[in-house]
Amino acid sequence: MTALTLSDLQAGYDPDLPIVKGVSFTVSKGEAVCILGPNGAGKSTMIKAIAGLVPCFGGQVQLGETEVTGMPSHLLARNGVGFVPQTENIFTRLSIIENLQIAAQLLPKPERPRRIEAMLDMFPDLAARPRELAGALSGGQRQMLAAARALLTEPEVLMLDEPSAGLSPKLVGQVFETLRRISDTGVTLVLVEQNVRAALALTHRALVLVDGKLAHDGPTDVLHDGRFLGELFLGHRAAEAGR
Ligand SMILES: Nc1ncnc2c1ncn2[C@@H]1O[C@H](COP(=O)(O)OP(=O)(O)O)[C@@H](O)[C@H]1O
Ligand SMILES: [Mg+2]
């Protein structure tokens, strides 16, 4: 079963200057994929376009069998897409529990307490201090809270933009442990990462985006060869991939 399909997606900030230049791939239900690529390749733009936060100029995004191209982000959230942006993904002046309560407002009222409870069960670190200000949390705990906010609505597909950016190696480990647990619950994961090593340990399949186009879509094992990845990033192998 297919969870997410992109067909020749073009997206960006100016229709005359697309940043995502015709990207196609499918992600199966329950799969975890990472999106790698050099800075400025368009990874964030692509993931935001899928999440309804950047305009699509051409092509399609499908959730399962349903076309959702250009659907506004709050409707996508109701239709099974969770998105954790790279920055400003929590309210730092509010407490943990308030952050969860706000995210829960997308749900029908009777379901809210049960889902907040479920998130506190899943993240004991957060459950231990529900009244703590989110701004007082460590980088790793902030990412957990951001993930919990996105998971509250029980998304089928969870997309995260560089959840380990700027964290110490120990916290990177913590974040990836969390992602592993999320993946084990059956949620489809789409993860944009700069931390190639950690990403490759988590996911079975990598997509490499170079200059708005896919330069590689396949198993992660070949990417353990740093030279291959280096050449991909520089674009030398893009032609070989036939794209
Ligand atoms: N809000 C924006 N408005 C205009 N251009 C943008 C905006 N955000 C990113 N860009 C441009 O889009 C290109 C891709 O950026 P981005 O998607 O952030 O790449 P990545 O996440 O792969 O580093 C860059 O050239 C960047 O300058
Ligand atoms: Mg980015």
Automatic annotation (TrEMBL):
SUPFAM superfamilies (alphabetical): P-loop containing nucleoside triphosphate hydrolases
Which keywords appear in this protein's UniProt record, sorted alphabetically?
Answer: Amino-acid transport, ATP-binding, Nucleotide-binding, Transport
PROSITE patterns for this protein: ABC_TRANSPORTER_2
Q: Where is the ABC transporter domain?
A: 4-236
Molecular function (GO) terms for this protein are: ATP binding; ATP hydrolysis activity; branched-chain amino acid transmembrane transporter activity
Q: Which family does it belong to?
A: Belongs to the ABC transporter superfamily.
Q: Could you tell me what this protein is called?
A: Branched-chain amino acid transport system ATP-binding protein
Is ATP-binding given among the entry's keywords?
yes
Query: Does this entry carry the keyword ATP-binding?
Result: yes
Q: Name one GO biological process term.
A: L-amino acid transport
